[in-house]
Design a protein that fits this description.
- The chain is an alpha+beta fold and 167 residues long.
- The protein has one domain: Jelly Rolls (Sandwich), CATH 2.60.120.
- It is 21% helix and 40% strand.
- The longest helix has 14 residues, at 86-99.
- It starts with 15 loop residues before the first strand and ends with a strand.
- Bound molecules: zinc ion.
Length: 167
């Protein structure tokens, strides 16, 4: 199995360059607030804890009760919820690599691309999630964190965060 350097420590991740307000629509107490998180990971693969970035968007939205959609705007990245424990991050990386190894002769490569594994890894993590918001905060269990999974980095990418509810 190819040994891949997964960027497993969130504190080592380059984080997000900026957040862009895309829309803020309010009808009485009903609010829909949309931001794009812009990111460029300097590695091909990374698992990045973005929980705080999402919490910041929720705070800026002013929404107290509702839900939050977090979606990778790419077909070679994923969004998921799980533990931020470093051993588990390494385990997830190895598991993804075992199911969709880099360097295999994928049919997708007949188009001239080399990222067939990244599309399959994205499929395994899902591309988006919805999280509950109660009293203005993510209503998560104690160990739940939101991760952005990059499978074909070294380029500018976006994540859309859409918060919907009442203010
Ligand atoms: Zn591709």
């Amino acid at each position: 199995m190819t040994r891949i350097h997964w960027l497993i420590d969130p504190s080592d991740c380059p984080g997000f360059r900026r957040s862009e307000l895309a829309a803020h629509e309010a009808r009485g107490a009903q609010v829909h607030h949309t931001e794009y998180l812009h990111v460029e990971i300097p590695e091909r693969y990374a698992l990045v804890n973005i929980t705080e970035r999402v919490e910041e968007v929720i705070a800026r939205s002013g929404i107290l009760d509702g839900s939050c959609l977090v979606s990778a705007m790419h077909i070679t990245a994923g969004i998921y919820v799980n533990d931020a424990e470093s051993g588990l991050l390494g385990d997830i990386g190895e598991w993804l690599e075992s199911l969709a190894p880099y360097g295999r002769d994928y049919r997708h490569h007949r188009t001239g691309e080399d990222n067939g594994d990244a599309h399959l890894k994205s499929f395994l993590t899902n591309h988006a999630l919805t999280a509950p918001i109660t009293r203005g905060k993510l209503d998560f269990g104690i160990w739940q964190r939101i991760f952005y999974a990059e499978f074909d980095g070294r380029r500018a990418k976006r994540i859309v965060v859409k918060v919907m509810g009442i203010s």
